[in-house]
Amino acid sequence: MFSSKLLAIPVQDLSGPLMDRIDIHIEVPAVKYRDLASRDAGEPSKEIKSRVDAGRKIQLNRFKGMKIYCNAQMTNRHIKKFCQIDDTSQRLLRNLWGCP
């Protein structure tokens, strides 16, 4: 988790290489032992593959006619085009970074 000190640092004061290493972090609940030790089959691989294939199809359609084929190859230009942030999310980001 970010400390309040880190969040108070203006973005322009962070170096590029440091900014490249900041990733999204989330807290997740601990997994209970009984869930780890369970012999339940869980979700079948076929269902997981189906979701992965659907996501890949979305990517291929999104990048049709471009020289990229997956999200990992997106540049800043692609991110600005395909990942627009709504007003509510913009306000949240401004508040997180302490911007008016």
Would you mind describing this structure in some detail?
With 100 residues, this protein is mainly alpha-helical. It has one domain. 50% of the residues lie in helices and 0% in strands. The chain has helices at 4-7, 16-21, 33-37, 45-62, 76-82, 87-96. The protein is extended, with a radius of gyration of 19 Å. The two termini are 23 Å apart.
Key phrases:
mainly alpha; 100 residues
Report the radius of gyration as a whole number of Å: 19 Å
C-alpha termini separation: 23 Å
Strand share of the residues? under 5%
Tell me the helix content.
40-55%
- The whole-number mean of residue pLDDT values reads 82
Q: What would the principal axes of the Cα set say about the shape?
A: extended
**SSE order:** HHHHHH
- What profile does the largest beta sheet have? none
Low-confidence stretches are: none
- How many helices does DSSP assign? 6
Number of domain modules? 1
Give a quick precis of the structure.
The protein has helices spanning 4-7, 16-21, 33-37, 45-62, 76-82, 87-96. With 100 residues, the protein is mainly alpha-helical. The chain has one domain.
What's the layout of helices and strands?
Layout: H1 4-7, H2 16-21, H3 33-37, H4 45-62, H5 76-82, H6 87-96
